[in-house]
Amino acid sequence: MIKKPEQLAKRLGLTFKQPNLFSMALTHRSMGARNNERLEYLGDSVLGFVIAEQLYEMFPEAGEGVLSRLRASLVNQNSLADLARQHNVGDYLILGSGELKSGGFRRDSILSDAMEAIMGAILKDQGINACRSWILELFAEKLSELSADNWTKDPKTQLQELMQAKQLELPVYELVSQSGAAHAQIFKVSCSVELVDQVCTAEGGSRKKAEQAAAEKMLNLLQSKSK
Fold this sequence. Notes:
The chain has two domains: 5-148, Ribonuclease iii, N-terminal Endonuclease Domain, Chain A (Orthogonal Bundle), CATH 1.10.1520; 155-226, Double Stranded RNA Binding Domain (2-Layer Sandwich), CATH 3.30.160.20. It is 56% helix and 9% strand. It has eleven helices and three strands; from the N terminus they run H-H-H-H-H-H-H-H-H-H-E-E-E-H. It has helices at 5-11, 19-25, 37-58, 64-74, 77-86, 97-101, 108-126, 128-138, 140-144, 155-165, 207-226, and strands at residues 172-179, 186-192, 200-204. Strands 1-2-3 form a three-stranded antiparallel sheet, with helices on one face. The longest helix is centred in the first third of the chain and has 22 residues, at 37-58.
């Protein structure tokens, strides 16, 4: 039996003036037209803003690229689903019969969407300040574990360490073409990894620079797919 939303609200330290908003945040689209997709839309936006602002304050020396990678390491499907599981959010989701039978309450995409919808519900019910406070408390441990140093490494090193952390084969770089006069050559290199079927290509004035650029593209691709 699905547990009552007010039990989860208490578990999350939340009190709603409009409890129906919280119930809506837990309602998957498999239940029909009245579902959490619109609240998820709001929550996705406010989460990105709150985390971006917090990182801006935490790492005053970090450039835009580093801040973007730090944010992507927090604001993604895996991270949100992990937080949802910590609070047993799946036990409170309101799902259609098909999703219930297929175990939708365990699915990363459904869990992460519900977390964003909860943020959207808080925003509508209590405003941006309450929403910001709750998000920062929710992400407090993950934020405390961040270090900008880990994200200032060159793209090839970052990509290699990412693959090693996942116990996958190292990235493969291949020279696609080499053109131009001896003093102004252009190298085109491809980068491929086990995580995705796509190949990223980039150019540079040396093979090393081209490989770094291709690795940067691959990191951006992987980050976009994890959201």
